[in-house]
Amino acid sequence: MANVLGLTGGIASGKSTVSQIFKKYHFKIVDADIGARKILDPGTKGLEEVVRIFGKQILLDSGSLDRVKLGQIIFNDAKKRKQLDECLVHHIREWIVSEKNKLLARNEPLIILDIPLLIEAHYENEVDEIMVVAVSEETQLKRLMKRNELTVEEAKMRIESQLPLSEKIEMADIVIYNEGTIEETEAQVVKWLVSKGYYSE
Ligand SMILES: CC(C)(COP(=O)(O)OP(=O)(O)OC[C@H]1O[C@@H](n2cnc3c(N)ncnc32)[C@H](O)[C@@H]1O)[C@@H](O)C(=O)NCCC(=O)NCCS
Ligand SMILES: Nc1ncnc2c1ncn2[C@@H]1O[C@H](COP(=O)(O)OP(=O)(O)OP(=O)(O)O)[C@@H](O)[C@H]1O
């Protein structure tokens, strides 16, 4: 029976970085951020619902979602974020579970579900183990500001829109510390893969 690993962490703590490491070792990933994009493609019910809540000004001239604008709105307004979450949660879950089932049917030994809001949105029953990618608050803030070109205040708002990383760590079966170099992070992932018998060096 396949082992389903839930991969989570705080915003910009390094989930995608760890996910890339798993990919390098040929393990299969279900990426919730990709699902969240697909369910908001032009012509989807998801996008229709988002337009109903936020109006046509949330679309670019091309008819696609203006992701930057939606991000600015929801990370500055908890009520709007809740509205968005409520309208998308079922679509995202459906996509994730369907992708997971496809991989289960292929008898993959290890399936990784990369879900930023795994704890907040209660995916615990969809996974066998939870891996949390952790960094210090300073590093998280610094990397988020750099990657998304945000001010300190903007970055803090995004971090505060999620459950504190410290609380996610408490829920973890495995913690990967992504404070150092990517090579150091990779070594921790490989050590875990070896300990579970999914990989031998
Ligand atoms: C607001 C949107 C358009 C911003 O898009 P953008 O391309 O700038 O960011 P991206 O999608 O890469 O998300 C970056 C990170 O933001 C965090 N995040 C995204 N949505 C949320 C949310 N509703 N609440 C808290 N954190 C969130 C996650 O850590 C995610 O990994 C987009 O994040 C979105 O559609 N969010 C709602 C869907 C959702 O809940 N996604 C999380 C998947 S579980
Ligand atoms: N060990 C590291 N050393 C230096 N930079 C890093 C390291 N790990 C990740 N980064 C950088 O930090 C940023 C956040 O990493 P990443 O995108 O992997 O986080 P994430 O948890 O997937 O983010 P999100 O929650 O927004 O999806 C990226 O710009 C990435 O290149």
UniProtKB/TrEMBL annotation:
The keyword Transcription does not apply. It is found in: Cytoplasm. The keyword Iron-sulfur does not apply. Its EC number is 2.7.1.24. PROSITE patterns: DPCK (PS51219). GO terms for molecular function: ATP binding; dephospho-CoA kinase activity. It is an enzyme of class 2 (transferase). Pathway: Cofactor biosynthesis; coenzyme A biosynthesis; CoA from (R)-pantothenate: step 5/5. It catalyses: 3'-dephospho-CoA + ATP = ADP + CoA + H(+). Its main location: cytoplasm. SUPFAM superfamilies: P-loop containing nucleoside triphosphate hydrolases. InterPro entries: Depp_CoAkinase, P-loop_NTPase. Catalyzes the phosphorylation of the 3'-hydroxyl group of dephosphocoenzyme A to form coenzyme A. It holds the Pfam family CoaE. This is Dephospho-CoA kinase.
